[in-house]
Amino acid sequence: WHEVDVSASEISGGGFFELINRLFGESVEDVTYRQSDEAGARLDLPFNSQNVQFTYSEGPDRGIWAIEIDGKPYLDSDGVALTLDAYASTTRYGVLSEVLEVEEAGLHILSLINTSDSNADSTGTTISIAAFEVMPAARQQSLLGILGMIVALQIVGLLFAWLLGERMFSKFAE
């Protein structure tokens, strides 16, 4: 793996587009990408959550990545191992992957692997990543549990009042 610094003008497209972005858009900053064109190159990224997404670049020399979570191929909705073809006819920075979800929140390892395969139109097998974002885990709804505890507490209170209420508080009522 090696690092490649990409300037803000390369990201925004330079010239007129850079001017428009500076005036009306978000400010674009220089970004460092980690790249590899070696077969089997692997980048392991630990995360503690249920959802993760990464930012990468596409281009004419980009290859195909394999994606694993916890050492197992990440499967798409059809049950097929997900791969990412990063080929594009022109270089594009700041491309977001789909959100990768695991069944349970906790400590996991996202692995991005250079398969050494490429699109037929690609001139190389480079994979390039800038960042990854760990997203909050899905919240677990416990409304029924909370309502159940409230009802149970009310029943205990009624039982207490029925069994001990007259003995303990009758002298105050007289």
The 3D shape can be described as elongated
* Main sheet makeup: 9 strands, antiparallel
Low-confidence spans: pLDDT under 50, at least 5 residues? none
Rg over alpha carbons = 28 Å
The count of β-strands is 9
- Return the average pLDDT rounded to an integer: 86
List keywords for this structure.
174 residues, 39% strand, single chain
Write structural notes for this entry.
With 174 residues, this protein is α+β, with helices and mostly antiparallel strands. 26% of the residues lie in helices and 39% in strands. It is built from three helices and nine strands, in the order βααββββββββα. Strands 1, 2, 3, 4, 5, 6, 7, 8 and 9 form a nine-stranded antiparallel sheet that branches. Strand 4 and strand 5 form a beta hairpin. The chain starts with a strand and ends with a helix. The model has no long low-confidence stretch (mean pLDDT 86).
Indicate the topology.
Blueprint: E1 2-6, H1 8-12, H2 15-24, E2 31-36, E3 42-58, E4 64-69, E5 72-73, E6 83-85, E7 92-96, E8 100-114, E9 127-135, H3 143-173
Antiparallel strand pairs: 1-2, 2-9, 3-7, 3-8, 3-9, 4-5, 4-6, 4-8
Question: Summarize this, please?
Answer:
The chain is of the alpha+beta class.
